[in-house]
Amino acid sequence: MAEQKNGANRAPVPRGGPNQGGYQKPKNLRGTVGRLMGYLGRYKLRLALVAVCILLSSACSVGGSYLMRPLINDYILPGNFPGLAKMLAVMGGIYLLGAGLSFAYARMMVRISQSTVAALRRDLFAKLQTLPLKYFDAHTHGELMSRFTNDIDNVSEAINNSFASLISSAATFLGTLAMMLYISPLLTCITFAVLAVMLAAVRGIGGRSRKSFTAQQKAIGAVNGYIEEMTEGQKVIKVFNHEPAAIEGFRERNEAYRQASTSAQSFAGAMMPVMGNLSYLNYAVTCMAGALLAIRSGDLGGLAAFLQYTRQVSQPVSQVSQQVNVLLAAVAGAERIFEVMETEPEQNSGKVTLVRAKCLSGNRIEETDIETGAWAWKKPDGALIPVRGDVRFDHVVFSYDGSKTILNGISLYAEPGQKIALVGSTGAGKTTITNLINRFYELDSGTITYDGIDIRDIEKDSLRKSLGVVLQDTHLFSGTVADNIRYGRLDATDEEVEAAAKLANADGFIRHLPQGYATVLSGDGGSLSQGERQLLNIARAALSNPPVLILDEATSSIDTRTEKLIEKGMDQLMAGRTVFVIAHRLSTVRNSQAILVLEQGEIIERGGHNDLLDQQGRYYRLYTGQAELA
Amino acid sequence: MVKKLLPYTKGYRPWIALGIACSAMDAVFQLLIPLVMADIVDIGVANADTGFIVRKGLLMVVLAAVAMAFGLGSAASSARAGMGFGANLRTAEYARVQDFSFSNIEKFSTASLVTRLTSDVRVLEMTLMMSMRLLVRAPVMLVAALVLAVRLSSQLSRVFLAAIPLLVIFVVLLMTKVGPLFRQLQEKTDDVNLVVQENLTGIRVVKSFVREAYEKEKFAKRNNGLRETSEKAFGAVVVNMPVMMLIIYGTIIAVMWFGGKMVFAGTMEVGGLTAFFSYITEILISLMMVSMIFMMMSRSIACAKRICEVLDEVPAVTDAQAQSGASVESGSVDFENVSFRYNDESAGWVLEDVSLHIPAGSTVGILGGTGSGKSTLVSLIPRLYEAQKGTVFVGSRPVADYTMEHLRDAVSVVLQKNTLFSGTIRENLLWGNPDATEEQLLAACRSACADEFLDRMPEGLDTDLGQGGVNVSGGQKQRLCIARAILKQPKILILDDSTSAVDTATDAKIREAFRRDLPGTTKLIIAQRISSIADANLILVLDKGRVVAQGSHEKLMKTCDIYQDVYLSQQEGVSIGG
Questions:
Q1: Is A79's CB within 8 Å of B264's CB?
Q2: What is the complex's ipTM, to 2 decimals?
Q3: First CA to last CA across chain A, in angstroms?
Q4: Does residue B570 belong to the interface with chain A, where contact is any CB pair within 8 Å?
Q5: What's the CA gap between B479 and B577, in Å, rounded?
Q6: pLDDT of residue A172
Q7: Rounded to 5 degrees, what are φ and ψ at B203?
Q8: Helices of type H across A158-242
Q9: How confident is the model at residue B539 (pLDDT cuts 50, 70, 90)?
Q10: B204 contacts A283? CB cut-off 8 A
Q11: CA-to-CA separations, A121 to A206, A267, B88, B431, in angstroms, rounded
Q12: Are B454 and B428 in contact (CB under 8 A)?
């Protein structure tokens, strides 16, 4: 159950399912495209310019080809070479203009698409920062990561290529069509009959290929999921000589992947030869018909130009047909991105803020910018209330999913400066209590007050700034050791960082690292032992210097002897603060003012260590090792 | 690199050949079409021969149909070959990873191994498939179009002498510029993904410390870097198209000029001139394809390099010195002046000059502070790592004498960071012994005290664990891992802090069961709790990579300061768990 609520513990879930691929039909095509257009809307002017450039460059290529007819009929056949030279110069000019324009719009499009995608990424990341933890519990990291990788890539590809290619295809298509009609309406009809066949082929292949693409994505998901899970447990595989079985399991999935993929790619690959050759077929039929017509009219130049158009007109059709999959994938990707963006952010309607305070005579306090160590709550009306660290739960009921109650009407209090220990078995609700103080989750009913203020009235950032948390799951970021400690307070000086490390007894091992405090940690500090990582976490919290401290199994991986060594530092850290401690080892919680024993979401005992021992109740049995926890 | 990857096309080479042949034929047939067309215009129209026009027209239709058949053949074979190659490569890579020792695995990190096995291979298989379809087709088209053009008019074809070198020079220049840009692009993408990934795993830390703004700023920096690099890379790519267009249009104009003169002079027909333009277009298209494939390849090269790194990695521990027939006869363990460090470059040793003797069947407790080398010490016994100095003996033979399979069958380790796999509890337990009977499974669960919670599960052994064993608590997971290890019926059983989440009472029961059920097995127990090891036959106390004391609990209580310290630190309270 602890695993259930802790996203960081979650094992990677096989990719695939609804989040992969993007070949399924988008749910809300219009809305999604509309929002995407909203992003592109910032570049309205430039996009219009791009469209103009595309149209002009298409006109140039159509016009250039059209010149062939007068060139052959009026200049080459009669042998008018000065005229031919002039006309060729005109043609060259048109082509040059066309190439220049297409370069210009391609460059503009790169800028627009990259800026758009960067904006999408930025907004998506910013949005993630505002989402409640509940959201991260319900979605795996792999799933959210694929928004940034797969989905954004798909959108980027579509904007990059498809936008321009759609416009230019449409323009080329229409322009060519007009010219063909102009040269010969009859031939045009023939050409379009064949084009209709091409479109039918596209639809047929497209439908079947979509099905096999879905199968392919599923198979890819299965292989990736297997690799992720098995590689995660690679060391266990080694220890159990399980390598042959692992390879066997891999082979099965890999073979299924190969088959599905072969079929999907065969379909996708069929598109090109079918389209290409149908366009040749078109060419052949048109040529035959055109020749028969030319016998009567003698318009050879017209036939040459027309045949050129016949080749040209099928190009946009096959181009668009190749873009369909890209576009569908992009829309599906965009839809998933916008789904995240539409998620309700953390509620944050509180108006009370945290400010630094200076104590004046007569118990008065005033706001200040100077670091005084004292803090105050500032109400919207400007009134200041000193932060004391008084935390109370009043009949708090809470469940993570709305059905399974984790906390069942808990009431508790922590007076300023008290050390409160939470004891109980896994799933009893210890970590949940600390999560609620932080307002990581919203209560089902009941209230939590902080210095008499309902925490819902406190601005979220202020609330969290006033609480220092050391989590059981240590997390380190890529960067130097000093950077990681400084995460607690960004403007801390090197001296302050070292002082915090000394307090947590981390200074010793840090100095033994190759570059000391400047040692770069990568991959979540993989080179450090679990105990060392916990020491760094404590140093980080010490640096942030908050009025209230929450230690959730903060020393669970530190051996008892080292724990003894850091005891002095911890005492110093806890002095004068309200502290919530969750610990496995009862020695860690022994000197708390109050020990709360939790079971199944209820507090069954509360009291000091000696009182509880005297009661000979649950705590006593735990302490003497008689009790077994469920 | 190509040489290294070539063997993985095995089994699909006929398909590769067929695919290439098909796509070449496809190209050839397509090229014949304009040739026939020239006949229609120049002979059919000129002579007003309707029958000739229809005959030739039908020929063109047949040619197109044949070309399409070849095209479909090429698509199907190249898909088969590409995907087959990918499957081979993935299998080989995966099998290679299975040969890795712990140090190899750590060198790569799990996340990077997963990418190298999945998306990197995907890029390569797609590249092979596309290259088969286009890379062959393009030069065939190019050559055939050139040949036909020359046949049509060798005089006029001279324009290509100017145009083609120009194109080639341009493509090469562009490639040298774009290649490095794409590599940079890959790195910048990794940067961005790293920030997102760390943000996701550390979201609680981010929120607790109210660092959302800081994270956004961090992200913005990388995001901008990525944007700038992609603008540069794609900006260079788009130069390709217009320049190609220019060169080709220039060619068309030149052909118009010279060809026009020839038509007037009667040395060339109008139909021929028109066909010539078709060839120019074909040549343009094939050259564009070639340059496109080169772009794609510059990306695949990066992937191929990453895959080759995995394939080339030398497993740090091998069976090279194993003697055939050597099997572990007894569970005694000896260390003779063993020193070890994880990284040859680091200055100090993790274990330094360790010598010890553990008789078969005894129970050994190992105690020591954070980073004292406890886990390292035991991981040398099943040869998860290789000691740099000294020798580790199991059953009085050096560990390298045994094949890894034999050794690890005899030495069962319950790792500190353990994993259960998706599937049922039974499937997971069977890892220990695939042939275990129902009774053996239940007996192992009893020894590991897993029976008590198994009884409460509705489906017992057939309960589905979900991925990573998410449906059981930490303590339950540890007990299942112990049961799995016991099922191997090992000569040596190593528990690396494997009962940390189990409460003391259960912990004691498990140790009791070990004594009762596994009397002949040597048991090594790493623990932080003295209570877990106090009744061991021998206790080793480690400090800074050395065994500083060994003996019974009573002896150490009298003679070892560290041991006394630890004992005292734990007297103030016992720990609980669940």
A1: yes
A2: 0.80
A3: 12
A4: yes
A5: 13
A6: 79
A7: -60, -35
A8: 163-183, 185-232, 234-239
A9: very high
A10: no
A11: 31, 33, 36, 43
A12: no
Task: Give yes or no for residue A537 having a pLDDT over 80.
Answer: yes
pLDDT at residue B82 greater than cutoff 90: yes
Within 8 A by CB and 6+ apart from A103, the residues are B238, B239, B241, B242, B243
The owner of tokens 């509309």 is A34
Number of Cβ within 10 Å of residue B381's Cβ equals 23
Separation of alpha carbons A238 and A243, rounded Å: 7
End-to-end CA separation in angstroms for chain B = 53
The overall longest dimension of chain B from CA atoms, in Å, is: 120
* β-strand pairing of B492-496 with B411-414: parallel
Contacts of B65 (CB under 8 A, 6+ apart): A277, A281
The whole-angstrom distance between residue A228's C-alpha and the CA centroid of its chain comes to: 19
Distance CA A353, CA A461 (A): 8
Is the pLDDT score of B274 beyond 50? yes
- Asked if B63 has any chain A CB less than 8 Å from its own CB, the reply is yes
**Measured on CA atoms in the order B261, B267, B268, B269, is the torsion positive or negative?**
positive
Confidence of residue A523 (pLDDT cuts 50, 70, 90): low
- Interchain contact B151–A (C-beta under 8 A): no
Q: Model-level pTM?
A: 0.75
Q: What is the pLDDT of residue B109?
A: 67
Name the residue among B167, B95, B551, B313 with its Cα closest to residue A234.
B95
Cβ <8 Å between A102 and B245: yes
On the question of pLDDT at B392 being above 90, the answer is yes
Using N-to-C axis directions, what is the helix angle for B270-312 and A300-342, rounded to 10°? 30
Whether A602 contacts A425, CB under 8 Å: no
pLDDT for the residue numbered A628:
43
Q: Which of B57, B261, B413 sits opposite A284 (nearest CB)?
A: B57
Instruction: Give how far B398 is from chain A: nearest CA, Å.
Output: 18
Alpha carbon distance A217, A18 (integer Å): 10
- With pLDDT > 70 as the criterion, what percentage of chain A qualifies? 91
CB contacts of B100 in chain A (<8 Å) are 234
How many Å apart are CA A279 and CA A318, to the nearest integer? Answer: 9
Q: The tokens of A400 are what?
A: 């993570």
Token pair for residue A447?
Answer: 């209230």
Contact B468 A232 (CB under 8 A): yes
C-alpha span between A574 and A568 (Å, rounded):
10
CB burial of residue A160 (10 Å; 0-12, 13-18, 19+): buried
* Single-letter amino acid, residue B197: Q
At B461-519, the pLDDT tens digits run: 888 876 555 567 677 888 999 999 999 889 999 998 888 777 777 888 898 899 898 88
Measured torsion, CA atoms of residues A177, A180, A182, A186, in degrees rounded to the nearest 10: -110
For B185-196, the DSSP string reads HHHHHHHHHHHH
Q: What's phi and psi for B109, nearest 5 deg?
A: 70, 145
